[in-house]
């Protein structure tokens, strides 16, 4: 990537990186000419987050930092947000959109890491290894096959058959498991996996149930006492999706009652804010539960790939205006604009804005080399490549900024 000049000099663009995102992200920004990088190994307390985000043009975070509407209200200069992970539920996506801020994530880079962990957990749970491990640590020794099973020939039920769920299915089939899945969308089955006829059908059949849905209003507490009761007695539950998806008290009760044979849980309704803070959960202290501190995607391979993927998307937006793969914003894929200046105009999607933009251009009688427009119900994003010098482009930018409904304007040289 060759450093390109933007209306706002690159050396003044401040990049705030939180939660110890990979060094590959820093390297990607630096290689693209961004030198002002404020790097933090941890999430920041809210007060400090507000103070730092007020100065930032680009922010990168993982799943812990909550970018609420209140925090975003402080982010007066912010042009883009990068979630260096898959989930984007920690960001108020609507508030970001109406502030004219696209949000990017890494939809694939850590999926394999989660899938490997989940399949390993299925094997461990079916063998009763968590209990045997705990017993040995206490000096116990109980060599027996009771309650210990191969996964071969057993049924894995996958709820949410997306990027992670499908990979879990493929790996599980390689171990000889039967795979059934449930999704709200019609999905192409990979291998011999089969769609269940509904969630209850899956629960009635599965020896191990694993959740891979995003956090949405519909998935909050979607796995409660009724769903747990519908599982086969002694079946195991794995949750590496989001902590809010499972009613954790209902799970604890079902484990105590022996209805659920074991569980592996990586995500929790409330997670400690920082390493070293106490982890509180009703699931603590049970030998048949594998507890992990939200590390499903935390492998060096995944983190390095995510660093490059998300930083490259942020650089591309900052340098070129492309919003390809933004999760909350009209998506525009843009060619390079050699020989033209590029004006970006983000506005509320209300009647009359486009005609005012076009009037502005016709007043200046400049040659338009390219025009790109995408809208969604809330926001319109117009990109105009124009043969103009810097002074003309800046004059145009000021006029565009004055159009009622404008959220943001930028010029890319
Ligand atoms: N533990 C960890 O460290 C990690 C956790 N995750 C979590 O895993 C989630 C899933 O990741 P991907 O597979 O990449 O997402 P994805 O978007 O590719 O797949 C999610 C699937 O769930 C389905 N779905 C949505 N609502 C549903 C519902 N109510 N019932 C059944 N299916 C439903 C969707 O149609 C989609 O097929 C992420 O959103 C994130 O929250 C992701 C990476 C790491
Ligand atoms: O990718 C996700 O959605 C995850 O849950 C991983 O989050 P993290 O980057 O480990 O904070």
TrEMBL record:
Keywords from UniProt, A to Z, are: Amino-acid biosynthesis, NAD, Oxidoreductase, Serine biosynthesis
Which PROSITE patterns does the UniProt entry name for this protein?
Answer: ACT, D_2_HYDROXYACID_DH_1, D_2_HYDROXYACID_DH_2
- Select a single GO molecular function from the record's annotations and give it: phosphoglycerate dehydrogenase activity
Pathway(s) of this molecule = Amino-acid biosynthesis; L-serine biosynthesis; L-serine from 3-phospho-D-glycerate: step 1/3
Q: Which CDD domains match?
A: ACT_3PGDH, PGDH_3
Q: What is its EC number?
A: 1.1.1.399, 1.1.1.95
Q: Which domain of life is it from?
A: Bacteria
The UniProt catalytic activity note for this protein reads: (2R)-3-phosphoglycerate + NAD(+) = 3-phosphooxypyruvate + NADH + H(+); (R)-2-hydroxyglutarate + NAD(+) = 2-oxoglutarate + NADH + H(+)
Do you know which InterPro entries this protein is assigned to?
Answer: ACT-like_dom_sf, ACT_dom, AHAS_small-like_ACT, D-2-hydroxyacid_DH, D-isomer_2_OHA_DH_cat_dom, D-isomer_DH_CS, D-isomer_DH_CS1, D-isomer_DH_NAD-bd
Q: Which GO terms describe its biological process?
A: L-serine biosynthetic process
* Domain ACT residues, every copy: 342-413
The broad enzyme category this protein falls into is oxidoreductase
**UniProt family annotation:** Belongs to the D-isomer specific 2-hydroxyacid dehydrogenase family.
What the protein does comes down to:
Catalyzes the reversible oxidation of 3-phospho-D-glycerate to 3-phosphonooxypyruvate, the first step of the phosphorylated L-serine biosynthesis pathway. Also catalyzes the reversible oxidation of 2-hydroxyglutarate to 2-oxoglutarate.
The protein's name is: D-3-phosphoglycerate dehydrogenase
Annotated organism of origin: Thermomonas brevis
Its gene name is: serA
